[in-house]
């Protein structure tokens, strides 16, 4: 118990809002490292009362020190829960966020049997969709070879078959898909300095920003999406909560019908675009 309380105090001093939760999460992970198996949450109380062995203290100190430097929990423990699975996360990938589940929910309401995920990162979007729709096929693309390696490992571990390829948006992608999805880098370069340290200092900048106005990815996707969609196909892309008007204008100019979907907090989160008429 004293270990967790001490860690919580250190986290609070470092400006971490979730200090108590993070101290508990990391203690559970340290137990896993020390014992060799995961400790269920309802068994934590007993371990908190027990006298900590030196190997547990050392393991916990290493984790606490990393979090104190504002490294994200997901990178420290190597995984992040998203939709129905835990996904491996590294410093080469964007940390899957709960807001992105808005895109998953929307996609599963649509009729599709093939999906293309542009900028797949951990593969969380693509793998979550394919796991929910047996028999469907999918491809994930990314510029980062390291991210693609993480995505392939996640797919294999979760038991989903998917194709992964290095590509700059649609460059090198052939064929048509019923559904195109993407969570592109949409943070403007001017906004990067205001991000939380966990994001700004630890996540790959190329997955966060286009180093411009935050809209270049949407311009590239909108320009070529129609050529890679089957008739009546759908495109779903995550957006920043203040970008709906700008992104809608980009897709409308490319000939799409566009709707905006909100996340659970009521913020604009996903645009749904179709080219050449709507269908479900």
UniProtKB/TrEMBL annotation:
The keyword Ligase does not apply. Keywords: Methyltransferase, S-adenosyl-L-methionine, Transferase. Gene3D superfamilies: DNA helicase RuvA subunit, C-terminal domain (1.10.8.10), Vaccinia Virus protein VP39 (3.40.50.150). Pfam families: MTS, PrmC_N. It catalyses: L-glutaminyl-[peptide chain release factor] + S-adenosyl-L-methionine = N(5)-methyl-L-glutaminyl-[peptide chain release factor] + S-adenosyl-L-homocysteine + H(+). SUPFAM superfamilies: S-adenosyl-L-methionine-dependent methyltransferases (SSF53335). One of its GO terms (molecular function) is nucleic acid binding. It comes from the Bacteria. Residues 100-187 form the Methyltransferase small domain. Substrate binds at residues 183-186. Residues 6-78 form the Release factor glutamine methyltransferase N-terminal domain. Coiled coil: none annotated. It is an enzyme of class 2 (transferase). S-adenosyl-L-methionine binds at residues 119-123, 142, 169, 183. GO terms for biological process: methylation. Its EC number is 2.1.1.297. The keyword Transferase applies. Methylates the class 1 translation termination release factors RF1/PrfA and RF2/PrfB on the glutamine residue of the universally conserved GGQ motif. NCBIfam families: hemK_fam, RF_mod_PrmC. Belongs to the protein N5-glutamine methyltransferase family. PrmC subfamily. This is Release factor glutamine methyltransferase.
